């Protein structure tokens, strides 16, 4: 029998306005299914975590209702310990309390990049998780809203309910972007591209995901920027959160990383991209070109094989299958090639075990993963931070849903940073790959303006 209490509330027609009422509460976060689909029909809104876990500069910190203190031990073991014994789920609700937050790509660097990676970062922690005993869940298919609380979540639930009754949603201050810079620019990207090709020719690896950063100063409220971005580029795995240091995370990810329901596991790697076209015939041609591209199929199947291997570490022998190969899914500014890999967890394995085995996602590293990550650390001039990590939840009931943090901006110390990249293989074309980074950054470039600087 579940220990959760569920109350049905009035369904808010405007999810953004509902979250705007909650946003000033400590630890407020929104998992936003801005493009509802079979993958993502629910929004999850949380605030006022009873406990928190944060890792910054290699040190983990824990807060259990009071001050922050250093937490010693393996980060994945700390997460599992804070989640505690598995609790009964609430039927029909994807999240009924648990850990929700973000996992930076750099969490996966510890066993790969030695000595310690001294490249500059984006000013955000490697990990932040709030542990929530109350949540607002919106079902956009049934158009219903539920306030769910676990023991200890009574005060948080009461605060959420009270805020939702406010008659006016606060308006964010208009976001204004400053001058745009790119790291590296066109020439620097070309040098890194050629270095990757040398590694590919020498047999070090089969594929490397090479990324670059776009940055701008800004004034105003980043939440205004998020609202504009989600209007331009609705996706099934959007997210907004404010971290303990005041940093903002704005994610418009199209890619599911790992989902767990019961013992069933799913990952949906993206490899292969074409821009959208305004003319329907041309747009259809681009999608068909992607579907039949030998290069993109080769990239995609490399990552599918990598993820099958990762899932096999914690799934039952023979249970890992590819249920979709080379599917094409269309978003506001791009078409993507998407495959689906599924499996069933071995007895006793948890969502945290799965995340540890697969982190960071193979679709944003390359293959083989360890060598690709070493090359990325050598050639990208700054650490990735949250980019190519994960955002999502691990529930007290053992369920999990996470996205890959692509199409994601972070705002810290007055600077917004957005990264975009792509997988490089032997027959990749430098100019086309460079353009692909701009195609993937389309919404951000629209927000920041097309002017840029770089080498």
Folded structure, characterized:
The protein is of the alpha+beta class and 455 residues long. It has one domain: Anthranilate synthase (4-Layer Sandwich), CATH 3.60.120.10. It contains eleven helices and 24 strands. It has helices at 15-22, 75-83, 154-164, 186-201, 222-232, 280-292, 294-312, 351-358, 369-379, 430-440, 442-448, and strands at residues 5-9, 29-32, 42-46, 51-56, 59-63, 68-70, 98-103, 127-132, 134-139, 144-149, 176-183, 207-219, 237-242, 248-253, 256-261, 264-267, 270-275, 321-330, 334-344, 366-367, 390-395, 400-404, 408-412, 415-424. The strands form two sheets. Strands 1, 2, 3, 9, 10, 11, 12, 13, 14, 20, 23 and 24 form a twelve-stranded antiparallel beta sheet that branches. Strands 4, 5, 6, 7, 8, 15, 16, 17, 18, 19, 21 and 22 form a twelve-stranded antiparallel beta sheet that branches. The protein starts with a strand and ends in a 7-residue tail after the last helix.
């Amino acid at each position: 029998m579940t220990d959760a209490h569920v109350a049905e509330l009035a369904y808010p027609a405007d999810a953004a306005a509902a979250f705007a009422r909650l946003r000033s509460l400590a630890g407020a976060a929104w998992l936003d299914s801005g493009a509802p689909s079979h993958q993502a029909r629910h929004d999850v809104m949380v605030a006022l975590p009873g406990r928190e876990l944060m890792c910054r500069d290699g040190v983990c910190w824990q807060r259990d209702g009071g001050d922050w203190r250093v937490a010693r031990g393996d980060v994945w073991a700390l997460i599992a310990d804070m989640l505690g014994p598995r609790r009964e789920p609430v039927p029909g609700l994807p999240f009924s309390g648990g850990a929700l937050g973000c996992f930076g790509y750099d969490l996966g660097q510890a066993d790969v990049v030695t000595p310690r990676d001294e490249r500059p970062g984006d000013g955000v922690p490697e990990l932040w998780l709030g542990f929530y005993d109350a949540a607002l869940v919106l079902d956009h298919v049934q158009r219903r809203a539920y306030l769910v609380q676990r023991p200890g979540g009574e005060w948080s639930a009461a605060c959420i309910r009270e805020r939702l009754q406010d008659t006016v949603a606060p308006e964010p201050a208009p976001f204004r972007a400053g001058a745009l810079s790119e790291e590296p620019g066109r020439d620097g990207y070309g040098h890194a591209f050629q270095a990757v090709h040398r590694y590919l020719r020498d047999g070090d690896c089969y594929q490397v995901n090479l990324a670059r950063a776009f940055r701008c100063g800004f004034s105003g409220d980043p939440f205004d920027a998020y609202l504009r971005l989600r209007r331009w580029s609705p996706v099934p795995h959007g997210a907004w959160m404010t971290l303990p240091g005041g940093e903002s995370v704005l994610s418009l990810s199209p890619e599911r990383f790992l989902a767990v329901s019961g013992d069933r596991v799913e990952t949906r790697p993206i490899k292969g991209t074409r821009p959208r076209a305004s003319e329907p015939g041309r747009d259809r041609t681009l999608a068909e070109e992607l579907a039949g591209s030998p290069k993109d199929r080769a990239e995609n199947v490399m990552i599918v094989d990598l993820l099958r291997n990762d899932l096999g570490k914690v799934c039952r022998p023979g249970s890992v299958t590819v249920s979709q190969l080379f599917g094409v899914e269309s978003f506001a500014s791009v078409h993507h090639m998407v495959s689906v890999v599924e499996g069933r967890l071995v007895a006793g394995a948890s969502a945290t075990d799965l995340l540890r085995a697969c982190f960071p996602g193979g679709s944003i590293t390359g293959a083989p993963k360890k060598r690709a990550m070493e090359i990325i650390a050598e050639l990208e001039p700054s650490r990735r931070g949250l980019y190519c990590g994960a955002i999502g939840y691990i529930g007290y009931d053992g369920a999990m849903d996470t996205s890959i943090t692509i199409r994601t901006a972070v705002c810290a110390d007055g600077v917004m940073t957005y990264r975009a990249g792509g997988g490089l293989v032997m027959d990749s074309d430098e100019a086309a790959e460079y353009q692909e980074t701009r195609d993937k950054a389309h919404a951000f470039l629209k927000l920041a303006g097309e002017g840029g600087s770089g080498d």
